[in-house]
Specification:
Largest sheet: 8 strands, mixed
Low-confidence stretches: none
Helix content: 40-55%
Shape: globular
Radius of gyration: 22 Å
Number of helices: 12
Strand order of the largest sheet: 3-2-1-4-7-6-8-5
CATH superfamily of one domain: Spore Coat Polysaccharide Biosynthesis Protein SpsA, Chain A
Strand content: 5-15%
Order of helices and strands: EHEHEHEEHEHEHEHHHHHH
Number of strands: 8
CATH topology of one domain: Spore Coat Polysaccharide Biosynthesis Protein SpsA, Chain A
CATH class of one domain: Alpha Beta
CATH architecture of one domain: Alpha-Beta Complex
Mean pLDDT: 88
Distance between the termini: 40 Å
Oligomer: single chain
């Protein structure tokens, strides 16, 4: 992919926030230290509904624009409203509670040196502790897996969805997003790809944050994502047309649609199916199906062990992989139910994060 390494436009760092006073000082310190020409870096906060003093704290920074509205309309409402104030060719979205790698903006902008790139996804990283509880260990390992998938997707054709903690688009490609949208980052980035552009990825452009404080908080977050995933499948159904979108459709269906639909169902069906086949084969015969049966049993026993050790810190983080995998797929089922009930609020309360 040919890049214009001299491409250095003005950019806007866009932060939609709700009651983030505890993160303002650290976020601004981090933002002002980013490696990019200061005269070309615009910082915009949109603080709809914040009543904890966040807007007042931000007024102390002369190089930052704050657009506040008393009414709370959710993150996507803030983004739709705030984008009217963005005048730069590139807008970079980031969360208030994440810190960015010093070279993140520079690396993201470089990828826009290719005119075919309409969106760039950064990498989400979880603070890596030597020992951790289930939520921290599982989330950290999950995002390493996600990052590997993004890298492979970018090499094949396009990343399938950006990480909301850090992603950027060409400003003129932003489309007004429905006010009840749950996964704003996913919808915004995929619509850019739907318009014929590619989503690129740089693992060295990263946002880092701590993990959810416990599995209950992580499950709450995952259920919301899963409900949003089903909503996204409905709204992006045009991308299912592999004859029109080709490789992008293949990536989208295999990496997202199946994960949010058939995978949990398949796992449930697999339990009685393997049991019946293994017993017909001879459960102690150690044939193919009996081995798969015992491996499945071992997996769920490991998940049970992970649940038992859930809040105990351990450096052997691999113990939590089966449990976290189980929680992820349980969240898809619960998210699907929540989507059908239309009970998922667009006003997301942030999960409690570990210190």
């Amino acid at each position: 992919m040919e890049l214009d390494l001299t491409y250095e436009p003005e950019v806007t760092l866009f932060i939609a926030a709700y009651n983030e006073k505890n993160y303002v000082a650290e976020k601004m310190k981090n933002s002002l230290a980013l490696e990019y020409p200061k005269e070309k870096l615009n910082i915009v906060w949109v603080t709809d509904g914040s009543n904890d003093g966040t807007p007042d704290l931000l007024k102390g920074y002369h190089n930052t624009k704050v657009y506040h509205l008393q009414e709370r309309n959710g993150k996507i409402g803030a983004m739709n409203r705030g984008m009217a104030f963005v005048k730069t060719p590139i807008v970079i979205f980031s969360d208030a509670n994440t810190n960015l790698g010093k070279e993140s903006i520079r690396r993201i902008v470089t990828l826009f040196g290719n005119s075919k790139v309409g969106c760039v996804s950064g990498e989400k990283r979880i603070v890596d502790k030597e020992s951790d509880v289930a939520s921290g260990a599982g989330e950290g390992l999950y995002w390493k897996y996600e990052s590997t998938l993004k890298k492979w997707d970018a090499e094949l054709y396009s990343v399938v969805g950006a990480a909301g903690e850090l992603f950027a688009i060409r400003t003129d490609l932003y489309r007004h997003v429905e006010k009840d949208t749950i996964l704003d980052d996913f919808i915004i980035s995929l619509r850019v790809a739907q318009d014929g552009y590619v989503i690129q990825y740089d693992p060295e452009a990263y946002a880092i944050e701590t993990a959810s404080v416990n599995v209950k908080e992580e499950l709450k977050r995952k259920i919301r994502i899963s409900a949003g995933g089903i909503q996204s499948i409905v709204r992006l159904r045009a991308l299912l047309n592999i004859f029109k979108y080709g490789t992008l459709s293949f990536q989208y269906i295999s990496h997202r649609v199946l994960r949010w639909s058939l995978t949990p169902l398949s796992l449930v069906i697999l339990i009685p199916l393997l049991t019946i086949i293994a017993f017909n084969e001879g459960v102690l015969s150690f044939g193919l199906y009996s081995m798969l049966f015992w491996l499945q049993l071992l997996f769920y026993a490991s998940a049970l062990l992970g649940w038992f050790l859930e809040n105990r810190q351990t450096s052997i983080k691999i113990l939590f992989i089966p449990y976290y995998f189980f929680i992820m797929n349980l969240s898809v089922v619960l998210g699907f139910i929540r989507y059908l009930k239309k009970s998922q609020s667009v006003n997301w309360e942030r999960s409690k994060r570990a210190i």
